[in-house]
Amino acid sequence: MTDASPLGADEATFIAMARSGDTARFALLTERHRRELQVHCYRMLANYEDAQDLTQETFLRAWNKRESFRGNASLRTWLYRIATNACLDFLDKRNDRTPVPIELPGSGSEVLYLQPYPDRMLPEDPQESVVARETIELAFIVAVQHLPPRQRAVFILRDVLGWPAPKVAGALELTVASVTSALQRARVTMREQLPGRRLDWRGPATHELSKDERGVVKSYIDAHERNDLDGLISLLREDLRFAMLPESGTSTTTAKDAVDGWVSGGLFQHGHDDWRGIATTVNRMPAAALYLRTPGDPEHRLFAVAALRIVDGKIAELTGFDATGKPWLGLPPAL
């Protein structure tokens, strides 16, 4: 596994560090890659906390293998190789990290271990780190989970990061023919999971929310704060796709049936009717952080985050996440 560029300053410094065992210099050289490696692990695993753990495992392995680094590949490539294989080792040991069938006939499967990715933890330079909006959105992350682990790794390295086939083959200890075959099968699955979506994942993609998206999020929060059920229904598409994780039960439902279901579950009823909200983003998607004040509590407590996919001014997909006990979301715990 080699890069075309000659030995760079970082690589030469890393080799010198490996000989001296300088932990401070090791941290200086590797920490600058933490955020992009964590996004890479997240794409592999769809779970923010797992991605954090596997990024730390990557640095531990890199430290233990530091003397094996020869500079034949860039330091960044070497770290990606370690991170990818650390994720594959993790997936080999876990039988609960695959999509599970949805109970409703014809509804496919869902990823119960999916967690949102806080935008504040994305790399600051999206061009350098290849974090286009479309490759971090929940729909893409879920679709990738339907690939077997090694196909997943090949697809991400080839079609997201843009690595050439020989470089991927070296990283995963596969033949170039195996990489090509795995990529072809992965692309077929991705077309099935994301019909109508573009397949050139390395192309430019927008990063900023549109004015329309921001307006819908504001209206969604306002409807909660006013307990305006009709207003909430008006924001939802009639073929709304809804999930509340980590509970199972992704469904496609009408707007009215969705809201009726939330009400029958206790929301917008006494004790669950005093809402506040703030607009935010996760996975570079518009989102609403919802805070609930229960009787006797002087403050509104962080309750859930609703990630929204908005199409033509309506919410087409709503993925809710339990936000309690997740400080890594970077949201105020109370309002």
From TrEMBL:
Matching SUPFAM superfamilies: NTF2-like, Sigma2 domain of RNA polymerase sigma factors, Sigma3 and sigma4 domains of RNA polymerase sigma factors
Q: Which residues form a coiled coil?
A: none
Question: What does the record give under GO molecular function?
Answer: DNA binding; sigma factor activity
Q: Keyword Lyase on this protein? A: no
Q: Which GO terms describe its biological process?
A: DNA-templated transcription initiation; response to stress
**Domain RNA polymerase sigma-70 region residues, every copy:** 30-95
Keyword flag Protein transport: no
Residue span, RNA polymerase sigma factor 70 region 4 type domain: 140-189
Keywords noted in UniProt: DNA-binding, Sigma factor, Transcription, Transcription regulation
Q: Please give the Gene3D superfamilies that the UniProt record associates with this protein.
A: 1.10.1740.10, 3.10.450.50, Winged helix-like DNA-binding domain superfamily/Winged helix DNA-binding domain (1.10.10.10)
* InterPro entries with a match to the protein in the record: NTF2-like_dom_sf, RNA_pol_sigma-70-like, RNA_pol_sigma-70_dom, RNA_pol_sigma-G_actinobac, RNA_pol_sigma70_ECF_CS, RNA_pol_sigma70_r2, RNA_pol_sigma70_r4_t2, RNA_pol_sigma_r2
Which family, according to the similarity comment? Belongs to the sigma-70 factor family. ECF subfamily.
Known partners and oligomeric status:
Interacts transiently with the RNA polymerase catalytic core formed by RpoA, RpoB, RpoC and RpoZ (2 alpha, 1 beta, 1 beta' and 1 omega subunit) to form the RNA polymerase holoenzyme that can initiate transcription.
PANTHER family annotated for this entry?
A: ECF RNA POLYMERASE SIGMA FACTOR SIGG (PTHR43133:SF65), RNA POLYMERASE ECF-TYPE SIGMA FACTO (PTHR43133)
Name used for this protein in its record? RNA polymerase sigma factor
**Species name:** Amycolatopsis orientalis
